[in-house]
Amino acid sequence: MPHHTHQADSPRRPIHPSERLGLHRLPPAAADLVLLGDLTGRYATGSYSRLGSDRRSVVLRADRQGAAEHGHRITAAIACHVARAGGTVGQLTQLLLHPEHEGGRHARNIALRSGQSRALDYIRRVWASASDAISTTIALSSRHEAYEVLAALRDRIETTPWRGERGRTALRVLRAHLNFAEIAGGPLHHASERQTAEEAGVSRTTLRVVYETVLRPRGWLRRLRVGHGREGSTWYLGDGTIPGHGDHALLSRFRSTRFPPDPALEEWTTPETATTADIDSTVLGQLMGHDAFTHHALGSAALVIISALHLRPDQTVAELVGTSSVSRATTYRTLKRLADHGLVQHTGETWTLAPRALEGFGIHLPDADNGHTAAPAQGWDKVAEHHGTSGIAARRKALHAAERAAYQEALDRLSEHRSRALVIVRDGRQVLVPVPRPDEIPPTWHAPDGRVLDPVTGHSAADWRVATDGRLILITPADQRSYDELAAAHAEALSEWESVA
């Protein structure tokens, strides 16, 4: 039926023409998805299979479970299309519950199995998720448009004041996510916490703090899906515009406390730094992962000051306070520290980066106070060694690698349905404690050659066998023994246990 003439009718009451959502208002791909379903198999990827215990082989899921996952993905995609077209939850319900729309088969199956009210609740939950996603995302029609969005986002990040130590740490984490988004080709990207911590040069504890206190409340970052196994979490970069939220999330002792304010004089009515910044975040993104810019070395303040001086050379301290969003006292302290390494130099009141400073190689600068020459930096590694922070990034990566291996081992044990073996020591030798065996299975589940019939699908279950004693035994892909060998091993362990007991 042509898209411009087909309308979804409600099974309960007549629909006013103003309430109808014609398929002509949806993109052609969305209209085909509603009418014909997922003909291309775009939403079927990963629905009917999962990785095996060895993380390389593919294990098929049960047909009913795979079909449910596939149907939910189709339903969520239709809900996003309807929300993007300005529809309502009622119009989505009409499209999904129409008997001739293949795209609504999953919702209609829920209505048949669990009732109409359960299906309507499911549709409302899907609609709430789709509306939330559409309200905070941008429709991108091409890769070029995606890069334009990322470029605009980078400009906004560079001109936003990131005050305080926490704000500057949030800038590093956000820049790490921007790096991942540029590789992915759009605001939607995948990254794990450990991967982001290594990219930003911070610990996972600090990373989680800035997630919860700065980036997510301020609308810069949204986690759409939590990662599992080797898959990182799914993130979406926002533009940091959340109505009703002030800059309080970015404040972290950015005002000096040396002289307390006098309320009678109306002191501290405005922040010390300006309301806009001007830095080069590309430089920040290249340097932030090095040991020389950890918290106990040069720190984040040096990062933003170097980024500000790279974008605009020859700035006074007053100008740096505005462009870097660093307080005046911290700016003076950081400039002195950078000058000691020969990374910055000043002429009168203006400061600029030393030649080859971004490579970590400073120049000899005479000290006006005592007449000696400050030792120049010989590379960022030397700067890290000077501050005692050399090797922090390597140790962090090694720790994360060990954590990933331990987590993967735990996942493998869960995927194999295995628990830790229980043993007791008797006369100097270990005796295995037999685990309880399952009860005997009904005769209707038996199949030739010891196979087991799945009572739901009626097909043979590849991972299960019937032992010689009529009990059910699970054989995982990592276990190469036959069910007869498993039954014999269990009988031997049971006999040994009873003799010891």
Description of the structure:
This protein has helices spanning 28-36, 63-84, 89-97, 105-114, 116-135, 143-158, 164-184, 193-200, 204-215, 281-287, 299-311, 317-324, 328-340, 380-387, 392-415, 483-500, and strands at 49-51, 58-60, 188-191, 221-225, 233-237, 315-316, 344-347, 350-353, 365-366, 373-374, 423-426, 429-432, 451-453, 460-466, 472-474. The protein has a 3-stranded antiparallel β-sheet. Strands 6-8-7 form a 3-stranded antiparallel β-sheet. Helix 6 (143-158) packs antiparallel against helix 7. It is an alpha+beta fold and 501 residues long. Helices cover 44% and strands 11% of the residues. It has 16 helices and 15 strands.
